[in-house]
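Hi V.,

Quick status before I head out on leave. The structure for the redesign project is tokenized and pasted below; the design run finished overnight.
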């Protein structure tokens, strides 16, 4: 599908505290009025594509499962004059079949701060294609478009014939508590999907740090200074350096750029970074701090 607007995503529970992702192993399915099966809680394109004269089902129940009896099988198929990828989402899906414009909005209520999105998958790509899995946590800030609190995104093109574990680290963009969680898994490149790609997903979970009930963000102090900076940034000296386990720097899309595990007191050299926005995460013994900064 063209301009497949991917994501505001995902909900789930943690190891110790949290809300579980409903129907996260796809054991529960219901029969839609059009005759096909859809996974309970999750939305698909089936109600739109499984109508006369199209009659195409892009999300199916399969007994080829990693956990339990069933999993979700997503298949990209030709629908009229375009290709529709198979997908699942916790949000609301809308499509205009005349313009082929799609949108996915909303999600489910969620107010925790996990560290990773985890799942198991198989993938059989059509030539040149890739699948995408994403998570967005949002909050309503009084504007028309919800504020993004955290994201996680993965794209893969390598065939996987057996169930493969996948862990995607969440990137926090601010200190706010999320209100909305949505997940999307899609079998094809959303911009130029290719018929024949098949993605099977199962056991979708959220993972929390074992040393903390929640990812807690201390609003009483700045994490680093100066900000913006051109060469070196320093940790706030109110932080206990002995409690810092590791520091990671990510670009704004969530790709890990640097990882440091010692020598924080003398500053962190960022001179090799391109100009732009970045996110630094500091992992301590009982807290994960996160802050956006600007490289000049």
């Amino acid at each position: 599908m063209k301009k497949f607007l991917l994501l505001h995503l995902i909900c789930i529970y943690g190891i110790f505290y949290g809300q579980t992702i409903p129907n996260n192993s796809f054991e529960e399915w219901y029969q839609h009025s059009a005759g096909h099966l859809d996974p309970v809680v999750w939305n698909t394109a089936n109600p739109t594509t499984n109508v006369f004269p199209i009659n195409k089902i892009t999300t199916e129940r399969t007994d080829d499962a990693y956990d339990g009896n069933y999993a979700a099988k997503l298949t990209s198929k030709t629908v009229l004059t375009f290709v529709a990828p198979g997908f699942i989402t916790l949000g609301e899906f809308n499509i205009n079949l005349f313009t082929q414009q799609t949108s996915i909005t909303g999600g489910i209520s969620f107010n925790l701060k996990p560290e990773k999105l985890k799942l198991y998958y198989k993938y059989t790509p059509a030539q040149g294609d890739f699948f995408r899995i994403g998570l967005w946590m949002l909050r309503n800030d009084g504007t028309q478009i919800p504020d993004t609190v955290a994201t996680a995104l993965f794209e893969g093109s390598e065939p996987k014939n057996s169930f493969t574990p996948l862990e995607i680290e969440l990137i926090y963009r601010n200190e706010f508590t999320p209100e909305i969680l949505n997940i999307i898994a899609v079998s094809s490149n959303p911009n130029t999907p290719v018929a024949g790609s098949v993605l099977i997903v199962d056991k979708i979970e959220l993972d929390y740090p074992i040393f903390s009930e929640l990812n807690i963000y201390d609003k009483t102090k700045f994490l680093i200074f100066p900000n913006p900076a051109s060469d070196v940034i320093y940790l706030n000296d109110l932080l206990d350096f002995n409690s810092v386990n590791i520091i990671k720097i990510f670009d704004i899309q969530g790709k890990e750029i640097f990882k440091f595990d010692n020598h924080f007191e003398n500053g962190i050299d960022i001179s090799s970074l391109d100009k732009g926005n970045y996110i630094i995460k500091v992992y301590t013994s009982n807290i994960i701090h996160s802050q956006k900064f600007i490289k000049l």
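Above is the designed sequence. Residues 224-295 form a domain with the Immunoglobulin-like fold (CATH 2.60.40).

G. will cover questions while I'm gone.

Best,
W.
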